[in-house]
């Protein structure tokens, strides 16, 4: 198996390649893979650098290829530029990249994300068999080739490495799951280097809620019902050192949905009628399929005769199919404001959204009291509530559903982004979980 076959075995089919004059002279190109190492991630790697022996400081010779992976599709041009510069640097200097070293982030690249350096590590998000390639002699390859993975890191993480060493930092890296691919991630450690490295930036507080009409009417306050015997919902609030807020909640919601690594997901949200044209244009621009809905509600005003004075209001909603992380990010940026206005904004893994009409018949006359959305019982629904600063999780799916036979809190923890911890569950405090 040659190195190209090794790449495609672990990364899937090559989706594109780029030949740059300075590299082409050395028979090196840059190649790209989609959905590697996870769905909706993009990986760019050099191809051909392995034919150039590189040296460590102790003069040991090694053959390497360099690579980066991210979730943000709009960062792919910076990704290509970084791999190009790293490859060219290795060619010009003959210096091998050593695990645990870090290089300053070049000016102008990934600048909006605030990273300070690129950290050298093994591609541990990939299968273990990817980390060492045994060269194909028939193709003129060296005996061993090492793919070198670069991870963007923050200044506080650089300071942590300098204070505690690479072994401690690597332990934190290896405990992450998909987090390192997200350029919008939070630092693994804070700016204060005396911080306990085991404490994450985000803490969640979880409260079980009984599913009753009052929950939807008084707590969730959304036109939603569930079709099935769901017994409990979970009220999740997110806090940090600066207390919980809607900006933090929006970031957590993105990370939570990305962590599920499950697409498509469907977003349903309120829209003012005059925004319909703008929304449709936005969906078309980003190639999103959608449906629109109108819900009606009968309002009864004071009057001496029942039904004498009443009015009907209509509310407008869109349901958008989100097929990847980039579109999820766009929808959150475009529509999260409706949650800040205490209007409906929710996500579901089911596209079987129906509308239930509640009617009333008086003196042989039938009228609509209220329309509500209905989700099937086997769906997971995440609703943003309370000025955009809280989430409600409703699900009968096994990995979310409450089960007395197992440690439910630890199972729920596995469904949360790796930089969060459950600090409180139904009033019980956890030192760490």
Concise overview:
The protein contains 11 helices and 23 strands. It has helices spanning 3-11, 21-24, 76-93, 155-164, 166-175, 213-220, 246-260, 276-285, 325-335, 337-340, 408-414, and strands at 16-18, 29-34, 42-47, 54-55, 61-62, 64-70, 102-104, 117-121, 133-134, 144-153, 202-210, 224-227, 232-239, 265-271, 290-300, 310-322, 345-348, 354-362, 365-376, 380-385, 390-395, 420-425, 428-429.
Structure explained in plain terms:
The chain has two domains: 179 residues, no CATH class; 228 residues, no CATH class. A hairpin with a 5-residue loop joins strand 4 and strand 5. 24% of the residues lie in helices and 33% in strands. The protein is of the alpha+beta class. Helix 4 crosses helix 5. The strands form four sheets. A ten-stranded mixed beta sheet has the order 15-16-14-17-20-21-13-11-22-23, sandwiched between helices. Strands 1, 2, 3, 6, 7, 8, 9 and 10 form an eight-stranded mixed beta sheet that branches.
Amino- and carboxy-terminal Cα gap: 44 Å
Tell me the count of domains: 2
Largest sheet: 10 strands, mixed
Uncertain residue ranges: 192-200
Give the count of helical stretches: 11
List keywords for this structure.
433 residues, 8-stranded mixed beta sheet, 2 domains, alpha+beta
How is the topology of this model organized?
Layout: H1 3-11, E1 16-18, H2 21-24, E2 29-34, E3 42-47, E4 54-55, E5 61-62, E6 64-70, H3 76-93, E7 102-104, E8 117-121, E9 133-134, E10 144-153, H4 155-164, H5 166-175, E11 202-210, H6 213-220, E12 224-227, E13 232-239, H7 246-260, E14 265-271, H8 276-285, E15 290-300, E16 310-322, H9 325-335, H10 337-340, E17 345-348, E18 354-362, E19 365-376, E20 380-385, E21 390-395, H11 408-414, E22 420-425, E23 428-429
Parallel strand pairs: 6-10, 11-22, 12-19
Antiparallel strand pairs: 1-2, 2-3, 3-6, 4-5, 7-8, 8-10, 9-10, 11-13, 13-21, 14-16, 14-17, 15-16, 17-20, 18-19, 20-21, 22-23
